[in-house]
Design goal:
Elements: H1 2-10, E1 22-30, E2 39-48, E3 53-60, H2 70-73, H3 77-80, H4 86-97, E4 101-104, H5 107-120, E5 129-132, H6 133-139, H7 149-155, H8 166-187, E6 193-195, E7 201-205, E8 208-211, E9 251-255, H9 262-271, E10 275-277, E11 286-289, H10 297-305, E12 309-310, H11 312-319
Parallel strand pairs: 1-4, 4-5, 9-10, 9-11, 11-12
Antiparallel strand pairs: 1-2, 2-3, 5-6, 7-8
Length: 328
């Protein structure tokens, strides 16, 4: 069945004209999963429009701090001692990404780590869109036991040689992405592409905002930090009405990339007396997204429920004049 899909998708008549012209399949290994963690290595496989390999590249990176889970990525402080800083490889990395869709397994994580490193270096990654192979495998309804890279690789008969080595993980993903891409082309599936926005305001430490390019000191973090917010003390006054101010107690949800770091936006919404919701329901007052056509679950539900939608810039203006909650 897979051979039939591959053969059919290889013909010019079967290939959707709307598909991207090139891809950069990326894997980054990091010191952890928190927002102030750093990249210790990166691997990139450049693919053409049909998923064929054009080139590959790999680098280790000195994270300027403890390398974190050495038992996972295998890069010790000694091994990284003479490695270049991210700023030293940012230009070369950018040439591998430019003009291509960034493809990664759990692409949100890889993109956020890359965007933050470029922000620290006072630059921007030349990436406009990303594609997550987890989301694509769901769109294709692949019969996977789970959504780990090893399961996707096994499904397509791709052999992993060095798990959690950035270049080998990128190779494995590139080999699994090629048949996935061709299967999507045959089926006429719209690729799950999402907009990538560079960070213009971010923080390495909770509660401290920084403009991109002006990083502070680094501190050790937990491997998977929790994010807890105080309960909103105000009742939900209902949906936001365009042209009117926000009101304390309104439930606000966010979807997709923001140029101001998500945590900072959520902190400001909480401080203004809004309820930050992690999911979207009929009770949600407003959805904030810069990509209303993305097809994320929150965007789809917003359309179904008729939930008002505004972009990040409009939300920032609304935050400046939030109406107090009504007295009971």
């Amino acid at each position: 069945m897979l051979e039939d899909l591959t053969t059919a998708a290889s013909s010019p008549t079967a290939w959707p004209a709307s598909y991207p012209r090139g891809y950069a399949v990326v894997d980054v290994e990091t010191t952890g999963l928190a927002r102030d963690d750093r990249i210790v290595s990166a691997g990139v496989y450049q693919l053409d429009a049909h998923g064929e390999v054009e080139d590959h590249w790999y680098t280790v990176v000195n994270p300027e701090r403890d390398p974190g889970p050495v038992w996972i990525h295998g890069l010790t402080s000694k091994a990284l001692e003479g490695a270049p800083l991210f700023g030293d490889v940012a230009g070369e990395f950018a040439t591998r990404l430019e003009g291509r869709v960034l493809v990664a397994h759990n692409a949100v994580f890889d993109w956020q780590m890359i965007a933050r490193e470029y922000a620290r270096a006072g630059a921007q990654a030349p990436v406009k869109q990303r594609l997550c192979t987890i989301v694509l495998s769901k769109e294709l309804r692949l019969p996977l036991p789970n959504h780990k890279l090893e399961s996707l690789a096994a499904h397509f008969g791709v052999v992993q040689r060095r798990a959690h080595h950035a270049l080998d993980d990128a190779r494995v993903l590139a080999e699994a992405f090629r048949p996935s891409l061709r299967a999507a082309a045959v089926s006429g599936i719209r690729l799950p592409l999402h907009e990538c926005l560079p960070l213009t305001e971010w923080t390495d430490r909770p509660g401290i905002g920084q403009q991109a390019g002006y990083g502070g000191g680094h501190r050790p973090t937990s491997w998977r930090p929790s994010r807890k917010r105080p309960a909103c003390p105000y009742p939900n006054p209902g949906r936001y009405r365009p042209g009117e101010p926000l009101k304390q107690g309104m439930r606000v949800a966010f979807s997709g990339d923001t140029s101001v770091e998500r945590d900072l936006l959520e902190d400001r919404a909480t401080e203004a007396g809004l309820h930050v919701a992690t999911s979207l329901s009929r009770l949600t007052s407003l959805l904030v997204t810069n990509d209303p056509d993305s097809g994320t679950s929150k965007v789809v539900k917003a359309r179904q429920y008729g939930t008002p939608v505004v972009d990040e810039a409009a939300f920032g203006q609304l935050l400046g004049d939030v109406e107090p909650a009504s007295e009971r």
